[in-house]
Backbone:
DNA sequence: ATTCGAAAATTGGTCAGTCCAATTTCAATG
DNA sequence: CATTGAAATTGGACTGACCAATTTTCGAAT
């Protein structure tokens, strides 16, 4: 039946094909793929082989397989990184925040030089949504994430974008984060954060890298302090971080 | 046969179990896992199920499956990130370098504040190795990567470490990178890069964040210019990058 | 007509057995 | 001792079947 071809690793072919279909919008997020049996017939392979391909898509975070229900498309692009595979990656919130502060501040500054009008427009929308969420007492923080990711996208650099997205993805895998989030929702901190976000957006609109850097740095500093105040944790990555991380800020090298 | 339990997603259990065994050293890197048939019997599951678990391990970069040969342990810890799954991630070298310059410079500065003696010692070793490699006309650039990763490790922040490692991992997946690398090896650029690395190490030893930032920035700037000179590519991420990326560098916010 | 619940259909989860293909092993051969 | 080729090993894939979770259908009760 299958003699020539690459022989080895059939499931990868199928997975790539399906991934391509999803990326191309052949299957929208929220929709379902055809049943395994149909897919098997469509690709002229057996069900076990299709299953293997689906497992890959699942690990990549593209689909979610549910018995009796079907294969649901969850994302249009691979979301992966080890967390998606269900690995233990419960890094302390402070350690993660430390990394985010370092990277996202730079990203914000860089974005100030490269953002487009349409980027700005989308960020504005995200802030509107966040404003509504805060008013509604939303606990999801989806709009928060959206805003930060849009900034990274505004760098026009896919590597930076994916890097920041990867950082945010970790967040949702941490048990401690989820716990803290629930507690934060009840507070009024989010209003302050919304103000922070607006300050960042203002700096981006003004195309002012320094202001964008400062605004983002201050914002994440505030987030960090908020979490510290709320939690009683004794994080090893807290000591020596508070004021030491304010690294560089010298004259421009390069050139 | 399998009535109770979590029912759903059997392969994940098995994969985690096997991953645990590998992580624990039950199977060393280079060794092989038992044949699929044996594993199936050992875990009291069918071969297709074991296969599914192995596919997960393969995607995670832990094992490599070879027909007729067996299941070879490739790594002790998940190496993943989308690239490991064999996805197309052939981002332009310049775009990647842009991201690296932005992030690794900050990381170097941060590392200057937190590096330990043993970190310094390991970096020194890496540079010694690099010196030998350059002299030997090595084309692998393994010591180069090692040095950069050690810097990220010196931040004592695993998120930053993994982020930088993730960036370097992309590098090896890009066709253009490999092509460029071969050409670079023949040149003498690497001697210059070695000098750059030594400058970075000196700044770290002196625990001088600004100097570390500048040294790393200059180094990656040089790498970028080198690649530009060698390649005739017309990368969209080159325009507007050369001097605009020198972002922030203002007074310390935070506090 | 609407609502509710049980039966039927759908769909993924897993198994057992079989055959094929690539690789390795190892003994016979020169 | 090197080479070769057959046999054993091992993964690749298929078929057909049955189970379990979910969804859909449709008739009965209101």
Residues:
């Amino acid at each position: 039946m299958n003699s020539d071809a690459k022989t080895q690793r059939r499931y990868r072919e199928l997975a790539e094909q399906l991934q391509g279909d999803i990326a191309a919008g052949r299957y929208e997020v929220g929709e379902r793929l055809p049943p395994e049996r149909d897919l098997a017939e469509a690709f002229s392979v057996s069900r076990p082989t299709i299953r293997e391909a689906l497992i890959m898509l699942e690990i990549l975070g593209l689909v979610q397989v549910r018995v009796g229900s079907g294969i649901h498309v969850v994302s249009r692009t691979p979301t992966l990184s080890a967390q998606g595979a269900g690995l233990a990656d419960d890094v302390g919130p402070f350690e993660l925040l430390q990394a985010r502060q370092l990277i996202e501040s730079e990203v914000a500054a860089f974005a100030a030089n490269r953002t487009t009008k349409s980027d700005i427009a989308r960020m504005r929308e995200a802030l509107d949504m966040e404003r509504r969420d805060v008013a509604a007492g939303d606990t999801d923080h989806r709009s928060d994430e959206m805003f930060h990711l849009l900034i990274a996208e505004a760098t026009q650099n896919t590597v930076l974008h994916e890097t920041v997205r990867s950082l945010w993805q970790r967040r949702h895998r941490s048990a401690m984060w989820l716990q803290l989030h629930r507690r934060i929702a009840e507070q009024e901190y989010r209003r302050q954060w919304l103000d922070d976000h607006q300050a960042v957006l203002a700096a981006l609109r003004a195309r002012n890298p320094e202001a964008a850097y400062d605004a983002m740095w201050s914002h994440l500093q505030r987030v960090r302090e908020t979490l510290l105040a709320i939690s009683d944790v004794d994080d090893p990555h807290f000591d020596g971080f508070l004021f030491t991380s304010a690294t560089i800020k010298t004259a421009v090298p390069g050139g």
Notes: Residues 1-7, 234-255 of chain B have pLDDT under 50 and may be disordered. The CA atoms of residues 168 and 226 of chain B lie 18 Å apart. Residues 10-80 of chain B form a domain with the Arc Repressor Mutant, subunit A fold (CATH 1.10.10.10).
